[in-house]
């Protein structure tokens, strides 16, 4: 693990930095090929570790593979990239791009769907807390309840409790009932 961290990740990262800094295209391409192969190796390693960890010298073979990828003499990453990865990705590039676009669209749709559901759950929880009489929170959230909003729109099917002050717009031409007015015309049997 330590060997792979130093020589498989930090060493190539530093030389990638130097290639970008010097703007040497040849070095830049060499390190990009290494990173593509190393990413594929790391992905494959996740699965092979599960099934092949019992194999004798398995971990030593992984270290030797990383050394082979890095070696300027064997040019392992360049060899693998040019012989296998580049031809495979070139032939499947259209399908991979289409799959990525579909995955991106689905993830966006899922994010929007779950975001709406989350907002609905939060709004429902806020209204439930307000309806249970949670003190000052209840009074502040009461103005956001669906009952109050439907009354403002002029929906006559909803009923307004006597303790709620309803404000109507001046365009509707209706008087603004206050708390005392609605209680005065209601029941007088206290």
From TrEMBL:
InterPro entries: TB2_DP1_HVA22. The chain crosses the membrane at residues 31-57. It holds the Pfam family TB2_DP1_HVA22. It is found in: Membrane. It is a multi-pass membrane protein. Residues 151-190 are annotated as: Disordered. Residues 156-170 have a biased composition (Low complexity). GO terms for biological process: endoplasmic reticulum tubular network organization. Residues 171-190 have a biased composition (Polar residues). GO terms for molecular function: microtubule binding; olfactory receptor binding. GO terms for cellular component: cytoplasmic microtubule; endoplasmic reticulum membrane; endoplasmic reticulum tubular network. Keywords: Membrane, Transmembrane, Transmembrane helix. Belongs to the DP1 family. This is Receptor expression-enhancing protein. The lineage of its organism: Eukaryota, Metazoa, Chordata, Craniata, Vertebrata. The gene is Reep1.
């Amino acid at each position: 693990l330590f060997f792979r961290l130093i020589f498989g990740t930090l060493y190539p990262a530093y030389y990638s930095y130097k290639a970008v800094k010097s703007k040497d295209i040849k070095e830049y391409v060499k390190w990009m090929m290494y990173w593509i192969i190393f990413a594929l190796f790391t992905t494959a390693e996740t699965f092979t570790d599960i099934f092949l960890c019992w194999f004798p010298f398995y971990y030593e073979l992984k270290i030797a593979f990383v050394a082979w990828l890095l070696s300027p003499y064997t040019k392992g990453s360049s060899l693998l990239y040019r012989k296998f990865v580049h031809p495979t990705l070139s032939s499947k590039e259209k399908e991979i791009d289409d799959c990525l676009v579909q995955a991106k669209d689905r993830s966006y749709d899922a994010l929007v769907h779950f975001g709406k559901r989350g907002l609905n759950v939060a709004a429902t929880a806020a209204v439930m807390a307000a309806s249970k009489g949670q003190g000052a929170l209840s009074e502040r959230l009461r103005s956001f309840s669906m009952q109050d909003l439907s009354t403002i729109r002029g929906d006559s099917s909803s009923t307004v409790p006597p303790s709620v002050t309803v404000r109507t717009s001046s365009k509707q031409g209706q008087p603004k009932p206050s708390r005392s007015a609605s209680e005065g015309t209601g029941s007088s049997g206290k």
